[in-house]
């Protein structure tokens, strides 16, 4: 008996005492972060990607998920990684990026990388129906996903995620983003935001809004010309990986 | 601030090639197996203590949990540990032992240790009458208070990080989990060590022989302690428990490496 789908398993690749906590996105799996994890591990960093609650099993599990569960799963990953690393950088994609920013506002990490992290939800349904979503989601539990938005056909083929969006999850995402936004003014850690110009889900304007809110002095936005929302799987991933590797090197190479 | 309560964090202590996956019990937290983990790590074993879903956060979270979520949590721990260790042992306290046995049918470990693991839910006449309405009732009454602690070592209570009540809805899930464990028992073939206290006031000691009899393992043994109540990893005889768990793991590891030595040298 197994609970987790193939590709949905969390992963841990030990190396040095600098660790990268890799957080996947909404309805995604740790698999999204795997190539990036292998790259960062190749540069001598220990990497750990937790499975966020309700992900990598079956879509129905998402109906019971609250955003605090995702924050707790991400924290679990942090505490496990801390067992083998004394310097930690959090790296997240999309909702995982939002979690990275939230956790970095209260955990003693050395830096944060957020890829395609949303500042707020633009989806009309989620925004207009917010107040009734918890009730609505009892009847209207999920809705179909559009195309994945991955430009790389090879990556598109091996993408592991749910086939639909949980309606309740839209409500939870808003809760998470509200919490993230309230944490941003306390974020003084070095920050790298990576976005794709062609990302239709979370366009680069979101990065600008996050950038403008964060008081950190060491902050940067990298806009990729190729690929879409799922940055660590798409066409410009090598550029993103290299920038992330350099950033981790830079923020952890100080004293100690 | 933190969403996981202080003291309830999962833990990982890297050491040798042999890894131990430690799992806590129902309504408890990784704190329940943290000292055991520290002891095993001192013996050169890599240890990973998982936090089961909805544990170590808020009691209300428990009523959203399904037993398969807990299986998912322990499976997560397995995958993380397996990437680091060639040999893996499962060690579970109470219901953590039940989850270890279920997981053992899917990912056979080198050995499994269950500590005060229940065979079924202890009969509770009050609960039996409520059972048909437990689900709707859980919306009005999310949890019932636990009885007074009955530690043989009262200091264990000071360090305890656990919920103070039993979540009603989750009791149904516990029942399903234990049913899954009972059907898993004959399919478990890993060497097994079972421990229980004769003075367990919560899970009667008779549960251990019931598990033992149905377990498919050829190499299986039971060990009793006496001066403890249910949570034997934290109670008065915890050091004895730690030593028996260590000895069990070291025996299996030694027999495996002997097996390697027996092979003809080319």
Kindly describe this structure.
The complex is a heterodimer of chains A (256) and B (266). Chain A is of the alpha/beta class and 256 residues long. Chain A has one domain: Alpha/Beta hydrolase fold, catalytic domain (Rossmann fold, 3-Layer(aba) Sandwich), CATH 3.40.50. Helices cover 38% and strands 17% of the residues of chain A. Chain A has 10 helices and 9 strands. Chain A has helices at 34-42, 59-62, 67-82, 95-104, 124-128, 133-139, 153-157, 167-183, 205-213, 237-252, and strands at 11-13, 18-23, 46-49, 87-93, 111-115, 142-144, 164-166, 191-196, 219-224. In chain A, helix 3 crosses helix 4, helix 4 runs parallel beside helix 8 (167-183) and helix 6 runs antiparallel to helix 8 (167-183). The longest helix of chain A is centred in the last third of the chain and has 17 residues, at 167-183. Chain A is globular and about 55 Å long. In chain B, helix 2 crosses helix 3 and helix 3 packs across helix 7. The longest helix of chain B has 25 residues, at 238-262. Chain B has a 7-stranded mixed beta sheet, sandwiched between helices. A two-stranded antiparallel sheet of chain B has the order 6-7. In chain B, helix 8 links the parallel strand 8 (192-197) and strand 9. Chain B has helices at 31-42, 67-82, 95-106, 125-130, 134-140, 155-159, 168-184, 207-214, 238-262, and strands spanning 11-13, 18-23, 46-50, 87-93, 111-115, 143-145, 165-167, 192-197, 220-225. Chain B has one domain: Alpha/Beta hydrolase fold, catalytic domain (Rossmann fold, 3-Layer(aba) Sandwich). Chain B starts with 10 loop residues before the first strand and ends with a helix. Chain B has 266 residues and is α/β, with parallel strands linked by helices. The A-B interface holds A 1-4, 9-14, 48, 50-51, 53, 57, 61, 64, 66, 68-69, 71-72, 75-76, 79-84, 106-107 and B 1-4, 9-14, 48, 51, 53-54, 57, 61, 64-66, 68-69, 71-72, 75-76, 79-81, 83-84, 102, 105-107, 180, 184.
């Amino acid at each position: 008996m197994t609970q987790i789908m193939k590709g949905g398993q969390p992963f841990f690749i030990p190396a040095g005492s600098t660790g990268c906590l890799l957080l996947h996105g909404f309805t995604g799996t740790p698999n999204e972060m795997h190539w990036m994890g292998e790259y960062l591990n190749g540069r001598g960093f220990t990497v750990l990607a937790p499975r966020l609650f309700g992900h990598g099993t079956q879509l129905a599990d998402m109906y019971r998920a609250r955003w605090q569960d995702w924050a707790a799963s991400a924290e679990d990953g942090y505490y496990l990684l801390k067992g083998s690393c004394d310097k930690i950088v959090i790296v997240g994609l999309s909702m995982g990026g939002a979690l990275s920013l939230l956790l970095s506002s209260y955990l003693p990490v050395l830096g944060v990388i957020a890829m395609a992290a949303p500042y707020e939800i633009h989806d009309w349904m989620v925004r207009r129906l917010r107040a009734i979503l918890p009730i609505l989601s009892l009847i209207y539990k999920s809705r179909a996903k559009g195309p994945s938005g991955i430009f790389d056909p090879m990556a598109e083929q091996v993408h592991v995620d749910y086939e639909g969006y949980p309606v309740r999850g839209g409500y939870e995402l808003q809760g998470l983003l509200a919490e993230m936004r309230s944490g941003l003014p306390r974020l003084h850690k070095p920050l790298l935001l990576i976005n794709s110009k062609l990302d239709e889900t979370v366009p680069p304007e979101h990065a600008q809004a996050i950038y403008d809110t964060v008081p950190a002095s060491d902050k940067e936005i990298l806009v990729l010309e190729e690929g879409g929302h799922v940055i660590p799987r798409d066409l410009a991933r090598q550029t993103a990986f290299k920038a992330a590797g350099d950033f981790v090197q830079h923020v952890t190479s100080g004293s100690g | 601030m933190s969403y996981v309560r202080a003291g309830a964090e999962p833990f990982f202590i890297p050491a040798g090639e042999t890894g131990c996956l430690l799992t806590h019990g129902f309504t408890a937290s990784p704190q329940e197996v943290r000292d055991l983990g520290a002891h095993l790590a001192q013996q050169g074993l890599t240890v990973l203590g998982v936090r089961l879903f909805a544990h170590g956060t808020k009691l209300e979270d428990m009523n959203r949990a399904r037993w398969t979520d807990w299986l998912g949590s322990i499976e997560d721990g397995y995958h993380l540990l397996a990437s680091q260790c060639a040999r893996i042992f499962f060690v579970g306290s109470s219901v953590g032992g039940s989850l270890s046995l279920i997981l053992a049918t899917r990912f056979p470990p080198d050995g499994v240790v269950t500590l005060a693991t229940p065979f079924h839910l202890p009969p509770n006449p009050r609960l039996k009458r409520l059972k048909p309405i437990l689900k709707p009732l859980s919306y009005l009454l999310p949890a019932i208070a636990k009885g007074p602690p009955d530690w043989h070592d009262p200091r264990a209570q000071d360090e305890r990080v656990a919920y103070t009540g039993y979540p009603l809805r989750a009791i149904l899930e516990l029942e399903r989990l234990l049913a899954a464990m009972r059907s898993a028992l004959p399919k478990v073939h890993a060497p097994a060590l079972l421990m229980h206290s004769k003075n367990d006031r919560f899970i009667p000691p008779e549960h251990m022989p019931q598990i033992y009899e149905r377990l498919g393992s050829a190499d299986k043994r039971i060990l009793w302690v006496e001066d403890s109540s249910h949570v034997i990893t934290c109670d008065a005889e915890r050091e004895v428990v730690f030593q028996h768990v260590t000895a069990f793991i070291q025996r299996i590891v030694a027999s495996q490496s002997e097996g390697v030595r027996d092979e003809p040298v080319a």
